[in-house]
Design goal:
By secondary structure, the protein is of the alpha/beta class. Helix content is 61%, strand content 7%. The protein has 18 helices and seven strands. It has a seven-stranded mixed β-sheet, sandwiched between helices. Strand 1 (23-29), helix 2 (38-55) and strand 2 (61-65) form a beta-alpha-beta unit. Helix 15 packs antiparallel against helix 17. The longest helix has 51 residues, at 402-452. It is elongated and about 115 Å long.
Length: 554
């Protein structure tokens, strides 16, 4: 067994016991850090890292760092003192990059030490498109490394003097901060992922000269604090939920595809299966709450009907009890946040499944680049997690995805369509039967009133207890309405007709894609279409499911 295979097996074993999303802390900093400012800067970096660890107690912090002189190496030293692992993102080959440390053996030794302890050391691929005929200059390589660190981070530490970049394509710290805060970089595909709406920069003031107005180590946050907290807390919340999964519900370590020895594919699948298990768990809670609310709504209506029509005074207590049950159900729904977690964890699972399939196919396409603007806005933590999960070398092998992706999804949507159609038919039949019974009862009531005098001045027959029979008719007719209310409250929240329609459309889509692969082969354009359509379908599902919050309609 080769050393690479042994490392892959070790990665598999590690991820099997920890299918969580690492919180990536990116670093960008000035190369020239004054020696006198070192203690203040180290203290500030340490304090911010400790805050992040405290904010995300269930998550593993990982630092993305290019290990350049100055701020980068300083942050790497502090991270090591706190036990934070490192992923090194180099702008070019290591041997070439080490020439930057000529004349400074201490920094070269620090660089080598951190490379040795790093979980990964990789060369940053181009984040931005390179114009035809242009070569990647040294400055452009540094910029790509900085952008790669920023784009794949949950939060960015910037050891910077605060002076704005002079040009949009600047390669230094100022250029990286401007790129991610203003979205002014040109990605290889899609639109810029990061902006101040979903990326925060912890600016640690790092002066270059003695005339600075602030003290070294002064900290301020760039971007929206609320957006940063949302991303970090939801990521940690997911990791906490994964760790709390019972052993029987924990995801298995079996790869979804054959030959899935790529540690990154394994990692995506491990987290994806955890997200899938959690989504199913919260979906079950959500549907149970829907059932309870539907029952409470129906019983409340029936109890009030008995109180009003049959003058069963004690039924008013049942009304109060049902209101209390409905309130309790809604409190449980709010406390567990099961509805949001159900749909967002499903979105994460789908995104990771698409990304692992793309990588398994040998493609460098990034799932996050294909997300719609709505998906980026509504589930920024999912987008950030997808970015964090793709840190690694380019895929080495290209596998056929016709069976494990296209035909598998076609079969899934076919089966889901059948299940959904059965539920839809049950719902429609129930409502149709209720309608027929309601019409029959209505006609019976009209006939009763015509015969016994309610609608006639000269009744054909007289009935001593006509009011009693009239009340019974009212109660029976109201009971049918109560049953209809139950069906509408439960099945109406499942959006069955929309769900079935979506499954049928996706089944036809995968059938078409399978034909295209057989005719034209597995092209990048086809892979992009597959991934984009899956993400759009999932985004649509998330969008209409958001409206189906647990509530009681009477």
């Amino acid at each position: 067994m080769t050393g690479r295979q042994e490392n892959a097996m070790e990665a598999h074993e590690k991820l099997e016991s920890d299918p969580t999303i690492p919180v990536m802390v990116g670093v960008t900093g000035h190369c020239a850090v004054r020696e006198a400012d070192g203690p203040a800067l180290r203290a500030a970096v340490r304090a911010e890292l400790l805050k992040l660890k405290e904010m995300c107690p269930h998550s593993r912090l990982v630092m993305l760092n290019s290990l350049a002189r100055g701020g980068d190496l300083l942050c790497a030293d502090v991270a090591e003192s706190l036990g934070i692992p490192l992923v090194v993102i180099l702008p070019r080959e290591r041997a070439d990059y080490e020439q930057d440390f000529e004349g400074d053996e201490m920094d070269r030794a620090r660089f080598s030490h951190h490379c040795q302890r790093a979980e990964q050391v990789l060369i940053a691929p181009p984040v931005e498109e390179v114009k035809d005929g242009c070569q990647m200059t040294r400055d452009m390589q540094y910029r790509q490394a900085g952008l790669y660190v920023a784009v794949h981070s949950h939060v960015l530490l910037a050891l910077w003097d605060g002076v704005a970049a002079q040009t949009e394509d600047a390669c230094g710290t100022a250029g990286v901060v401007a790129a991610v805060m203003q979205g002014c970089y040109r990605p290889v595909s899609g639109a810029a992922l990061r902006s101040e709406g979903n990326q925060a920069v912890i600016h640690i003031f790092t002066p270059r000269d003695d005339g600075a107005a602030q003290e070294a180590g002064t900290v301020r946050l760039l971007g929206k604090r609320e957006a940063l907290l949302d991303v970090l807390l939801k990521t940690d919340e997911f990791n906490q939920s994964v760790q709390a999964l019972p052993a029987e519900e924990a995801p298995s370590s079996r790869p979804l595809q054959e030959e899935a020895s790529d540690p990154l594919v394994y990692r995506m699948q491990a987290v994806g299966r955890a997200a899938d298990a959690l989504s199913g768990r919260y979906a079950l809670k959500y549907r149970r709450i829907l059932v309870m609310l539907a029952i409470a709504s129906a019983l409340l209506t029936f109890a009030f009907l008995m109180y009003d029509e049959a003058e069963a005074i004690w039924m008013i207590l049942i009304c109060g009890l049902m209101l209390l049950c409905a309130w309790k159900c809604q409190r449980v729904a709010a406390r567990t946040d099961c509805h949001r977690r159900y749909i967002e964890y499903r979105a994460l699972a789908e995104g990771l499944r698409v990304q692992s399939n793309l990588r398994y196919a040998g493609s460098r396409i990034q799932t996050a680049d294909l997300l719609s603007w709505t998906q980026r806005e509504e589930t920024a933590w999912v987008m950030t997690s997808l970015c964090a999960m793709t840190v690694g070398e380019d895929p080495e092998k290209r596998h056929d995805i016709l069976h494990c992706w296209v035909e598998d999804q076609q079969d899934y949507h076919r089966r889901a369509s059948v299940r959904g159609t059965k539920k839809l038919i049950t719902s429609e039949r129930t409502l149709r039967v209720a309608l027929v019974i309601s019409v029959a009862l209505y006609l019976a009531a009209v006939a009763f009133e015509l015969v016994f005098g309610g609608l006639s001045l000269f009744p054909a027959l007289r009935l001593d207890q006509a009011e009693v029979y009239r009340t019974v008719l009212k109660i029976v007719l109201g009971t049918i309405s109560v049953g209809t209310l139950f069906v509408a409250n439960y099945y109406g929240k499942l959006s069955l007709s929309r769900t079935v329609s979506d499954h049928q459309k996706m089944e036809r889509f995968y059938s078409q894609m399978a034909s295209q692969i057989r005719m034209h082969g597995q092209t990048e354009a086809l892979l992009r279409t597959l991934a984009r359509e899956e993400l759009i379908e999932n985004g649509n599902w998330v969008s209409y499911q958001r409206d189906n919050t647990p509530d009681m309609n009477v």
